[in-house]
Amino acid sequence: MFVFDKGFDFDAKLNIRFRPGAVKEIGKELKKMGFKKALVVTDPGVLKAGLHNGLIKSLVDENIEYETFSDVEPNPRDISVEKAAKLAKELQIDVVIGIGGGSSLDTAKGVGFLLTNPGRIKDYNGKDKVKNEPIPIIAIPTTAGTGSEVTANAAITDAEDHVKMSVRSPKIIPSLAVLDPELLATLPQKVAAYSSMDALIHAIESYLSRGANAFSDFFNLKAIELISKYIRPFCAEPSNIEAAGNMLIGSMLAGLGISNTGTGNAHALGRALGGEYDMAHGLACSVVFPHVMKFNAVSQPDKYVDIAKAMGLITDGLTKKQIAEKVVEEIFALMDDLKIEKNLNTLNVKKESFERMAQVAISNVKPNPRKTTLEDLVQLFNDAY
Ligand SMILES: [Fe+2]
């Protein structure tokens, strides 16, 4: 059911290139668009695995000048994004290409808008603060996780107080998303597991969100279906092109969802954990996710039935309450199969930090379907402990 009296907005830029080897065609595409100088933004892992080689060759083949910034950090800090933007300004680039996980894509977004907007990243923390159109941003994900290639959001950490900021504006949606399943083939097991789980959490939290609407529901249900079907075979063997391709499509669809609905408590808590402990985003959200799902079950029983169906669970003869319990069970089982840590105490998280992190998380609970208090958040941390 949608809240028709409030209506909804849905922003997207859908320029997608999806195929094995798509990354090798980018040079030609950029040439057609008239670009002359690019900054390639990536992280040391991508560089080491040589995932950028096809992209670089395609730029060289088309005589597009380029420079590489490869110092992207996991949970990128504002000061390092600003460093990349400074380099981009000196080089006078006309296009920025992010290749990597969400951190690389979000850093590229930061570079894109800082080139045309004055000041620092923190001046743009929040919704619709970016005034001028960024330079074109090309996004090439190497994980099936954040969906950042189609989102209007960049998550960047404030280096001073370790809080994750969120720059949100349709202006920073990448101009082109290049989805190449071959780039996922060498993903380390842990990265594949954490990022894939993040994509599933996006689809489910967006589907349950108070901001959910006809468009986001359409994308999210398909995302839940694709991700549920392919997450295990993909994590078992990321070079399985069919699984990787479907995971990329699933994570992109979920990205379209969250970009327009916001996320729920798993992300509110996960972001606080990520800021305090510099934990991988997918892990931080996963570890609290089944508990959040248990907490939210009373708020949207019908939607839990839809989720169970999209996940391919057999629900014949079960009550809505039992179906919701089955969804939670399946999430725990999936985390077991993917070898994702299920307890905060095994991740060296200290109970003393729960209250402080809850204070941070409380500002992000608005889209969550069940009304959430500070005490609820502390309890959810305790549940995950
Ligand atoms: Fe996420």
TrEMBL record:
Domain Fe-containing alcohol dehydrogenase-like C-terminal as annotated: residue spans: 193-385
Lineage: superkingdom: Bacteria
GO molecular function: alcohol dehydrogenase (NAD+) activity; metal ion binding
Keyword annotations from UniProtKB, A to Z: NAD, Oxidoreductase
Domain Alcohol dehydrogenase iron-type/glycerol dehydrogenase GldA: 16-181
InterPro entries registered for this protein in UniProt: ADH_Fe/GldA, ADH_Fe_C, ADH_Fe_CS, Alcohol_dehydrogenase_Fe
Similarity comment: Belongs to the iron-containing alcohol dehydrogenase family.
Protein name listed in UniProt: Iron-containing alcohol dehydrogenase
